[in-house]
Amino acid sequence: MSRVAIAARPAQQADRVENKPAKVEAFVRLFNEMPVGNLVANLTTKVETFEVAGRTFPLTLNDASDAPNCYICCPSGAYIDYAIDETRNFAAHPLLRRALQAFIGACAPLVRASGLDHQVQVNNWLYSTNPMPLLDRQTVAALRAALVARFPDHAILIRSLNEIADPATIAALKAEGFRMLAARQIYIFADRSAAPAMTKNMKLDRKQLGATPFERVGDADFTEADYARAEALYNMLYLEKYTPLNPHYTARYIAEMHRRGIISLAGLRRPGGELVAVTGLFENGGTLTQPIVGYDTSLPLGEGLYRMVMAMGQDHATAQGLFFNMSAGAAGFKRRRGAIAAIEYNAVYAGHLPRRRRMAIRAMETVLALVGIPLLRRFEL
């Protein structure tokens, strides 16, 4: 396991994301002990620990030759393949769908010219959403200098930044030469009061959770068979209902992340039988994300399985006083449950790269700001 270390400096003020070194080490060790493809079936990457100014991060390293690759390590997968796939949301508007597909296709050479698939990514937990610890300019400058020296031909990337959770970090990154590429619209459940306002839909969800014939499954109750079933349920939702471009988390991944204390699990099962719904929760300092959600999509919608596992996440956030980043998708559903929208950005540093790549990244930033963000807001993507 490789490591990059820089002398620590005095601690910063408290923030919502902790990145405990022991948890980072447990995560990195897992991805060094087992082939990455056995854990995330559609992913190629190298994972290591990166330390800078008293902060510890998981770091991923990818070469352009790894593409096509899962979008969590491959910007061309996110900005071209996933974007084209997302136009399925406009099936009822065929002319708009074709126009968007043509626009994305026209932008594809720009994305490829950026060389962003040749990247080193900081704080990549290999989730769709990776909450970032607070960074000031001094830390950003140290981070940039260390990575430019070690990876002189790789773009430096940080995903999952938004103006609600990360305004100071975004300002520090911009001041140190990072470009902000809009990625998607996410939803934040940020009411940390002891009793957050309950919308009508939240009340209905909890009523259904209290009346369901399915049994609740706690974190300590998961068995080997449950891990395999959890993979199947995740696949039903994220790979079959949504898109196979999402990360293919395997039963081995779910089991090892759970056993090593990186995620906690909860779910619902038939009385004395198999799981019908599952969720994986990633708690990092004062922030919660929900990287794994799955349910038996063959069961009637009236069973409310998705509603109930999302309610479990919100209830956990409320009970623990956590800032809950609910990620992207299901926009109306999340808004009706008290979440507010925010644009999520990828921060990119390319000041050390050839001019052609720098210009392509700058053009991407402009196109995404002028066209991408209005589309994301208008259609709640």
Model description:
By secondary structure, the protein is of the alpha+beta class. The protein has two domains: 3-187 and 341-379, no CATH class; 200-340, 3-Layer(aba) Sandwich (Aminopeptidase), CATH 3.40.630.30. The protein has twelve helices and twelve strands. Residues 208-335 form the BioF2-like acetyltransferase domain. This is BioF2-like acetyltransferase domain-containing protein.
- Low-confidence stretches are 1-14
Secondary structure category: alpha+beta
Instruction: State the helix count.
Output: 12
Distance between the termini: 38 Å
Biggest beta sheet attributes:
12 strands, mixed
Overall tally of domains: 2
Radius of gyration: 20 Å
The helix content, as a percent range, equals 40-55%
What would you call the shape? globular
Instruction: Summarize model confidence as the mean pLDDT.
Output: 93
Extended strand count: 12
Largest beta sheet: strand ordering? 1-2-3-4-5-12-6-11-10-9-8-7
- Report strand %: 15-25%
Q: What series of H and E elements makes up the topology?
A: EHHEEHHEHEHEHEHHEEEHEHEH
